[in-house]
Amino acid sequence: MSSNAILRCEKVTKIYRRGRSESVHALKDIDLEIRPGEIIMIAGPSGSGKTTLLNVLSGLDKPTKGKILFNVAKASEKFKVKGLDEETIKKQKFIDITQWDEKQLTEYRRYNVGFIFQAWELIPTLKAIENVESSLYPLDIPIGEIRDRAKKLFRKVQLFDKENAFPDQLSGGEQQRVAICRALIKEPKIVFADEPTGNLDSETGEQILRQMKLISREGAAVVLSTHNLELRKFADRVIRLHDGQITY
Amino acid sequence: MAIWRLIKNSIRFAFRAKKRWVTFVIIFALLSAFVTLFVSTFNGYTTEKLMSQKGFYIKAAGTSENTGTVTEQQGINFRNDIIALPQVEKVTLFRYFDLGDSIRIFSVEPDSRWMFLEAKPSKIVDGKYITKNNEALVSLDASITADIGNLSASLTATLHRGEVLSFKKDNNELDIAIVGEIEDTINAPGKFKLFVSDTTFDQIQEYYSDNSPVFCYSIAILVKGDLFKPFNHDIKNNIEALSPQTSIIWINPDDPVETSQYGVWGEPIVPDARASEKQRLTDFLYFFVGILGGMVLVLLYNALIVWFRKREIAVLRAMGYKKREIRINLLGESLTISLLGFIIGLSAMLIYFWTQGFTFTNQVITPLTLLMSFGIVVGLSIPGLLIASVSFTRVNPILLFKAR
Ligand SMILES: Nc1ncnc2c1ncn2[C@@H]1O[C@H](COP(=O)(O)OP(=O)(O)OP(=O)(O)O)[C@@H](O)[C@H]1O
Ligand SMILES: [Mg+2]
């Protein structure tokens, strides 16, 4: 395996328990490598485990078995791993995030991970630009710089005249573009998007994906899930999931 | 620096939210008004209710006439003997003397102001009660018409709040600031009444009045017993034991020895001890209902905020906000709403009181009352939100990956 990866998972298994007797193998022995700058598309029918996979990769949920290795050498500069000095980090490079506690996972997401949700999940009480900026509010970045970055992103996704609109004044495609800006403003290493085009018509969906492709060219890895295989042309790699397993 | 952005953001959350936040501001406004009212029933116990619950008065006989019936020395004898009784907590003597034909000066110690039945703080119409020496209250719209003999006093025809009364004799000058006007019920026709502290009273009497004789107007007696123990009967028992002693045994107008020792006093004016005990219980009930109701509502509201903001919390958690940062955001929102409600509710209530003829200064609502209701309505939001935010752990960002 190349050490070029930003995130790597080894034999990741997720079992959901339902009641006492029933259990669902949502993921079975998944091996996967995610490299900076590529768009990986996770495709599969409903119930195949796409969401579960994104959850465990992004540290929102823990797998039952297996390792999720994060390349700390490629982590955001501000990201510090508690209890590890720089020497060890250089030597080890890959650290298993499944061993981290909630606080460490929060830090991991805070500096390295961006999210784009299917239902956009913009905060309705914040204007478009504030939604984007809110990603950085808790970080030690001057507000002027935050504003500059947000404006630059708005220009990039062609939303410059919608900065002060509230989410309910925007179309679905516009909201999703705001959500993209919100994920990107902190310059994450990996962007996770679960069905980012699921609520959009196909034309708008393709437009969104084109924009995501532009973004990945700037270095972030994009992991997105879809059940629409027509969108494969935007991906560098397509991984098909079926019943929690990768099929080729 | 970052914390200010979070606070600013929380204020946006509060102000830009939909109707339900307006609803909550209104709820908090009502809550503030009610809590303040309920708390002020408690406040009554340090003020207005002090005498009606825990004390009684005895007036000197015939004080409306120009000469008093109880001399200062007789009043002091009376007081000294009463204070020696085991049921007594505090005794205050209210004295007066006449300055010329038309000015009557009364002593009211600021500490005992609620014990002066005829001139207690709730009777203030304008301004405030005296708090220290060289301050005076005047009877409402009283005017001075009399010639005050060989004294030179710079008096205008009427005296009002904000004016200064100067006494001059030889090279000595005493300036007394009129701080308030009072609706007194002292029956002394044609007298311009001035209420000052004991020290100022003695000073004027000694230096500026050619030693006019001092008389006693009334005596107020507080019995022992804790007002804040609603189920305790000490107060009732003490009042019932004490009032006959002070009237029947000690003051017998037909007994020339006693009369010369104590002067002639009227019947004690005693509250109905049983009724006031009942009143005390109801007040405490109100007080607790007010406080408990306030607490429950504040806690409930903070729990609701966490519930209403579930999706926002999930988004922020996914973004990598720490729990502390989310708490700041929600707390800011909760505090903004409750503070806004508090200000609106209180202003509305003060305006209402004002239209009813009460003023802030006659101490229906004191700073302590305000502080308590502020503590309940606004201050409690902090622990309230901290308790509610325990349920953050149940808000998992995973829910965001499930389409609505
Ligand atoms: N919290 C849970 N408890 C129990 N079972 C779950 C839970 N979440 C998911 N599952 C099960 O795990 C399997 C994978 O679910 P997952 O949500 O990852 O699928 P998906 O590929 O995202 O499907 P879709 O395209 O419908 O979103 C499904 O069989 C689902 O029923
Ligand atoms: Mg899914």
Automatic annotation (TrEMBL), chain A:
Superkingdom, taxonomy of origin: Archaea
InterPro entries for this protein: AAA+_ATPase (IPR003593), ABC_transporter-like_ATP-bd (IPR003439), ABC_transporter-like_CS (IPR017871), ABC_transpr_LolD-like (IPR015854), MacB-like_ATP-bd (IPR017911), P-loop_NTPase (IPR027417)
First and last residue of the signal peptide: none
Key words, A-Z: ATP-binding, Nucleotide-binding, Transport
Domain ABC transporter: 7-248
SMART domains attached to this UniProt entry: AAA
Gene Ontology molecular function: ATP binding; ATP hydrolysis activity; transmembrane transporter activity
GO cellular component: plasma membrane
Magnesium found in the keyword field: no
Any single Pfam family the record assigns to this protein: ABC_tran
Name recorded for this polypeptide: ABC transporter ATP-binding protein
Organism field: Candidatus Heimdallarchaeum aukensis
TrEMBL record, chain B:
All residue ranges annotated as the ABC3 transporter permease C-terminal domain in the record: 286-397
Topology with respect to the bilayer: Multi-pass membrane protein
GO cellular component, one term: plasma membrane
Main location: membrane
Keywords per UniProt: Cell membrane, Membrane, Transmembrane, Transmembrane helix, Transport
Location relative to the cell: Cell membrane
Transmembrane segments: 21-42, 284-308, 328-354, 374-395
UniProt organism field: Candidatus Heimdallarchaeum aukensis
Listed name of the protein: ABC transporter permease
